[in-house]
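Re: the 333-residue chain
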Amino acid sequence: MSDVLLDVKNLRVDLPTERGLLHAVRGIDFQVRRGEMLCLVGESGCGKSMTSLALMGLLPRKAQRSADHIRFAGPDLQRLKEREMARLRGARIAMIFQEPMTSLNPSYTLGDQLCEALRAHRKVSAAQARERAVYLLERAGVPQAAERLGQYPHQLSGGLRQRVMIAMALMCEPELIIADEPTTALDVTIQAQILRLIRELQQEFATAVVFITHDLGVVARIADRVAVMYAGQVVETAPVAELFARPTHPYTRGLLGCIPVRGKTLPGSRLQSIPGVVPSLIGPVEGCAFANRCPQAQDLCQQAPLNVPLNERHQVRCVSARPDVAALIAEAA
């Protein structure tokens, strides 16, 4: 059996606006292996969250999703009916949302919400569901777990609410968890605890995780592999150690250059920044979207860049990635 759990090919998400069609996700490819932690990283508005919602089938009503395929453990998710997707969500694919206060229902107790997720997909008694909820809350580091089942979301701190969301995602032992910036609303200390918890639980339950973030510090701490997104496209994919040791796309290098490095960045010195602004994704986008901000831009950048393999697991969407890219573009044309 292949160890590839999720295989996404040429995923696109378009959103109609008053000014025209917004191309939020523009033909991205990636794979997630069983038990792997893949981080999707990029600045706000690059399409990370739209990608996660497209995978779950939770896009806004007017959004248009297309792909060559979105295969999850074999079947193509595009071909599933809504009832089949509903059976899949929560059971085999779960999601940890960005803000737990708006994701948890304020009208129901934590116990009701945790147990509902399990009983909707498994034939278990209320007592069995409650027992698993208590176990997972304890594993997620929630103190007095049994007593918490009778509480409401507003009675918990932000960190505890996020731990409840993690426990809820694990209720049915899913094969894949999509975590959409789950630490954004938390302070730095609690963020570190949640990241460590997610990594420990992911390894304990052998669950594959797509972790969405804009923070490269988070990526360095938890990722197995990284996909860097810019303007709706994946511009570089590599194992985490190789990406930090050998960043190849100018955007990836720019992101890493913005981070202060202990022992190298002098106190009071100016950090590097990426000049320019992200281009509008409304209407047609010609050539490389990063060309207007790139110090290595050349005439070839006016053509759509190819995804160039540097090795078996490191790919870059850039004409400067290899000396022979110009020949590859001419051959493709």
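Residues 188-205 form the longest helix (18 residues).
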